[in-house]
């Protein structure tokens, strides 16, 4: 599929002709995408869009957060690989995505699904968002995983290179398993087993654990 640099940050037109769709259905690979914004949507708990936008207007001296890369999973010629970065502002989210897209391999992925969850201490609420990047419902599932694990101030991106064979629901399993694995790797949760059993439990909010 044709990619536009940094298009994960863009609102795509909602018309069927322009909206990127999953590789799990037949699509026209020659479609083009139109960027409408430099920032993702702000879906917040108790925080409206205007207030969320103010959080991006912080001093411009923020540094690019360190980006970690996890082990890939390959199934029927599709490959999934997770990436993780600590973030505390939406500007850092944009910086991380821009940096990832400088990597030609990541930029060429069929889908780059992401979700982030930032805790706003002064408002005692969460700023969060997600992006399917054409893999329908994958971003929401990834964000739900971050919520049930109760992690904060982190974003996870999962790249998928489609191999030509439909995976059905298994693709969501691989996306979430990649995300769990890198959250364990970077000490945001205790173990893959705990992460798998976390659904529905009330747990203490977790930043990255001290090593």
UniProtKB/TrEMBL annotation:
It holds the Pfam family Impact_N. Residues 1-21 are annotated as: Disordered. GO terms for cellular component: cytoplasm. One of its GO terms (biological process) is regulation of translational initiation. Residues 76-183 form the Impact N-terminal domain. Signal peptide: none annotated. InterPro entries: Impact, Impact_N, Impact_N_sf, Ribosomal_Su5_D2-typ_SF, UPF0029_Impact_CS. Belongs to the IMPACT family. This is Impact N-terminal domain-containing protein. It comes from Synaphobranchus kaupii (Kaup's arrowtooth eel). The lineage of its organism: Eukaryota, Metazoa, Chordata, Craniata, Vertebrata.
